[in-house]
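Appendix B. Chain record.
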Amino acid sequence: MKRTTIFVPEDLERDLQLYARREGKPTAAIVREALAAYIAAKRPRAELPSFAGAFDSGHADTAERHEEILFRRLSPHGAKPGGRAVAKRRR
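Structure tokens predicted for this chain:
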């Protein structure tokens, strides 16, 4: 852990001390928790598509079959969808 110094207004520092005492935690722990929560809230999130989780498929094994479901229409380079890979000739 690295030590740092911050400057806060006196009234905020007083509120921090009171809050820390009520919670039974050191003020440094309260500041670390608050800072971590602030940073986490501001961090850009990788959003799921708007349709994710919007419907009930009626299948109970979707989580186990997710790769099969996601990749069933994809094919290796040079393969026809649903078919086998076609060897490419070099010229």
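Further analysis of this model is presented in Appendix C.
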